Amino acid sequence: MCSDWKRYRLCGFPPPSSGHIAIAQILGILEQAPAVAQPLEGGSPGVDFLHAYTEAARLAFADRALYVADPDFVAPPAGSWASLLDPAYLKERAALIGAQSMKVAKPGTPRGAAVSLAAQADQPESGTSHISIVDADGRAVAMTTTIEGQFGARQMVRGFLLNNELTDFSFAASDAQGRPIANRVAPGKRPRSSMSPTLVFDRASGQLLMSLGSPGGALIIHYTAKSLLGTLAWRLDAQQAVALPNFGSTNGPTLLEAGRFQPATVEALRARGHEVRELPMTSGLQAIERTATGWFGGADPRREGVVMGD
Questions:
Q1: Which of 307, 225, 166 is nearest to 23 (CA)?
Q2: Catalytic residue among 54, 128, 146, 250
Q3: Mean pLDDT score, 4-33
Q4: How far apart are the first and last CA of the chain?
Q5: Where are the domains of the chain?
Q6: Contact 67, 182 (CB under 8 A)
Q7: What is the assigned CATH class of domain 2-299?
Q8: Annotated catalytic, 265?
Q9: CA–CA distance, 269 with 284 (Å, rounded to integer)
Q10: What is the pTM of this model?
Q11: Is 281 helix (H, G, I), strand (E, B) or coil?
């Protein structure tokens, strides 16, 4: 699944993964919202940017909770997942961002969509790995894989650990009004994930520019979006972008990586109505970008990843 942003074409995994749609919505909403003059302050994301980003994230995660599930079982709104990325729709969503945090966003309704579903409650996700590779001939892969929690289902068959992906389904089949939840369990159904392996191309030439992704449950979406913004919008190199402090929201509190933001930043967000939680946000980003002199890689200092090449 591919979408356009600025002069780039971003290609990621379609539903049942929610990753690409959520990232594209966040970036698209930010593009439609008033521009932030200085997104980085002292090398870290500043208050104005964090406010705009986490509000955009709330809007994207609200849509994710309502709409995204296995397309073999659930029809996309208005007949196409692209309806969630329509510029007119994203402009409507961006207009909801105000001076104060909305705290919890409501899902939107793309034009032509008829909604009879209930939103899924937030649930923890875990147990993911990512690798990005570009070979000597320019062939590239961005691969994210998961068996869910550590050691998956705790069952090994012929040397392979079985996954525990049932925990990526909604624990409830419907809401209190009896409306079905799109990501409810069903035989043969694939669970919704947040995996966001991403390839970036130049829109005009079609040339591959980047391969990136991360483990980290639902926060994969924010880790990957952060790295895209850092490299493509803020002109940092891949290593600098990967190492930036982590931040986000899954349509609840504003999440900041513990120990990486100044107390003044935290207090300024609270003054704008944010419920701020500082916590470990252990991304495992891997990124490779094309430069004028060849390929340049970035590995997340928070985990054991390393850049290798010859």
A1: 225
A2: 128
A3: 97
A4: 31
A5: 2-299
A6: yes
A7: alpha beta
A8: no
A9: 26
A10: 0.95
A11: coil
